[in-house]
């Protein structure tokens, strides 16, 4: 279904004629805009419906666990008590369950009556000023933010653009916000609306996501999606170009829209309402620029990426679809980039030969998860093929198994890294709550990303090393036992801003040699297993891990843990889980137990976990970043300095801790750039 340039021009002209009849400012135009905004809000949130069934299953399982588990008093113990614990009997609790120990501290109880009383007290005194704003994650001072866009390093500054509503904390009126940084950690806000000139007919209802490409002369160029209306009931999406007003300005404070816009429009056979989010462009050996547009075929079930080509970055022609997968639905925010077979260094997007593979990543509008596939890009045919059908785009591996969406990478030419950004939306998503709070959405910590040389399948993600510059007050302890049933505070480790890095010795039990497919079916099975077990489950090998944002009585706690599932043949395979079920006394927040299987190589001696806590976000990197889970939580008691930390082991077997390191994280004060 190839198209000619003439065909593209013709369809563009037709759209221009339609728009010229509907754009005049009138009451009907305003009504159309309102209808479009409502339609788009539905578009951004429609993926929620796809999760209803699985969420219901999880809820039923959790309810069954709670109903059959006798409630008990709970307590804490320090490390010396943990090592000398004498077991009397086993109890279960809503959160972590553990064993009653000798010399148990007094006054640390959280039975159902106290839970109810505390919850009632909380609900009577609830106010929206509770400290859920992060201290070192990027977020605007106020209002709504979603997708990261157009990141780059330019003339000494890192640039981050983002989808932003300058008028409120709900989605709508979307423009490109802009911030700059010298180190990816300390940010200054540049502008609430970087692309100047006001709405044009092609982005009348919003300037949506896109990417930055460096032209041959070094000028950065933005490709972005415009959303507009062609009638009171029909909206369209087009691709548009913006260039810096002054390319010598290292801060790139203002951008203007090209007179050639829109530079790409949907072909007549395409769905113009499912046509968005251009990738960074790359140049082939034939001298032509290439970019991908996320889309869905008109069968309503096949996700795809349209490939466009251009000689001059202004006149673009549709070529063909580089890759498509049936049953995956709309592909948002596609990303396409090379990775080296060895080493951590990143590559410019135009590198396609030598010892490289390519990554195709898409954000599925159906379920709001980011999926990727590692494979081969054929430069001659402009086609991508994943290495394994079972872990193809949209049905296989994810960047993150929690709250992480609409991600985008860029090549940091300063340090030769490929860096990943992603949006973490709120889980207290009631509109009234967001409006009262005055803000919504954060960006996950920027992550360096590279191909796992050991598996050639997984991508490794770790926070950029600049994040370590926020470390303060290190606490270390090596070579100790986390006894069965232990809940153990670590002196000096507390608060809502932490970086916890732990290595557990693997059990001597033989590992399963079953093939780890990483498919979406396996991911659902893993999440259900995490939900069915939860931190309160008493297994043979786990759950064991950490409790963060916990109050002293363990009424509130966010548990991040390994659970080693023992199979019928006596071998094990590991899961990493993030249990939000007891993270807050609020009822109207997400309390999902997120998790997945984690690939642990037989050659690896340890189960490693790095958990970074920042008030309302918990990011966990397992096995050196091979698997990542991000959670948003909203404690009501375990806030600020009332937030405590514990190690725990709810399994029936002791666990050996090889190394434990923890730091308090310094706050970052983001401010408006002064011109």
Descriptors:
single chain, 675 residues, mainly beta, Tachylectin-2, Chain A, Jelly Rolls, 2 domains, six-stranded mixed sheet, six-stranded antiparallel sheet, 8 helices, disordered N terminus
Report on this model:
The protein has 675 residues and is mainly beta. It folds into 2 domains: 366 residues, 5 Propeller (Tachylectin-2, Chain A); 219 residues, Sandwich (Jelly Rolls), CATH 2.60.120.560. 14% of the residues lie in helices and 39% in strands. It contains 8 helices and 37 strands. The strands form 7 sheets. Strands 21-1-2-3-4-37 form a 6-stranded mixed sheet. A hairpin with a 2-residue loop joins β32 and β33. The longest helix is centred in the first third of the chain and has 19 residues. It is globular. InterPro entries: ConA-like_dom_sf (IPR013320), Fructan_Metab_Enzymes (IPR050551), Glyco_hydro_32 (IPR001362), Glyco_hydro_32_AS (IPR018053), Glyco_hydro_32_C (IPR013189), Glyco_hydro_32_N (IPR013148), Glyco_hydro_beta-prop_sf (IPR023296). It holds the Pfam family Glyco_hydro_32N. Keywords: Glycosidase, Hydrolase, Membrane, Transmembrane, Transmembrane helix. This is Beta-fructofuranosidase. Belongs to the glycosyl hydrolase 32 family.
Quickly describe the structure:
With 675 residues, the chain is mostly beta strands. It is built from eight helices and 37 strands.
In CATH, the topology of the largest domain is named Tachylectin-2, Chain A
Provide the domain count: 2
Oligomer: single chain
Radius of gyration equals: 25 Å
CATH superfamily of the largest domain: Glycosyl hydrolase domain, family 43
Unreliable residue stretches: 1-95, 97-129
- In percent, how helical is the residue content? 10-25%
Tell me the fraction of residues in β-strands, as a range. 35-45%
Give the helix/strand class: mainly beta
How many individual helices? 8
Mean pLDDT: 83
